[in-house]
Write a structure and sequence with these properties.
Blueprint (H helix, E strand, L loop, with lengths): L15 H34 L15 H7 L2 H36 L3 H8 L7 H12 L4 H8 L16 H25 L3 H9 L4 H29 L3 H7 L6 H10 L4 H23 L4 H5 L1
Length: about 300
Amino acid sequence: MDALEPGAVIVVESRRPRRDLSTLGLISSPLGYLVVFFVVPVVLVGAYSVGALTLLPQDHFLSLRPWTDLLSSDVYLGLFWKSVRMSLIVSVASLVMAYPVAYFLALVVGRRKYTLLLVTIAPFLTSYLLRVLAWRVILGEQGLITSFLRTVGLVGPDEGVRWLFYSQFAVYLVLSYVWVPFVALPIFVTLENMDRTLLEASSDLGAGRWRTFWTITFPLSIPGVIAAFIFVFIPTIGEYVTPLLVGGPDGFMFGNAIQSAFTQGFDWQFGSAMSMFLIGAVTILIVIFGRYLNVRTVTE
């Protein structure tokens, strides 16, 4: 090896700027998509809700009137809390129905669990709207259930079951059905990645199946349960398609009020204020739930 000459300067080529450029190039497309299709629309809706942006002649420039009308209205705030209550019921019902499915697929089935998992999520391959319309056929006044009850004589020829269609029960039933396959996935992943030796150790120590479930299986699956709860609760608050098709007046939710403000009342500023109020409430809920949920424990 030749000796360095006196006064020679050693130049070390740094690859860090090149790596930074590569990372920036990789994240630029998804980041740009997020900014254009999420951040910008939310900013525009927020600006419109306070009158910083106006489009219609009846809009008020730089006015907080939509917000004061919303926050001082017992009707809309009550409708919001009604939507929160319905979302809670739907989320809990979906978890109760989906947990046995996920448990069966992850810990009981064996080799065919992924095939059955595909069968479970097969409804996602069809249109959401078609599935809801199918429930209209089942729950309607001339639907399958009512026709069967009339056939067996439990309901008169001209009578129907009032709580079966155009009711909160119909909204609970249809939304729970829609979300069950989606709820089962995070729970299945959590149970699938669970250390099976803990179950064997519990059995060796004399614990029964129920005690093993409540002391080991269920506590270890709580991250997946919380993730599934969030996946259902947050979008259900703003749901408006299902209440519109099967809920009727009793199933009216906050999302329906936002839709009515834009399409029927043409009060876009008030609709924007309700939209931003819902986004803010959902954001707060995400932050609260995020403190108790480690997403890595669900995905790893």
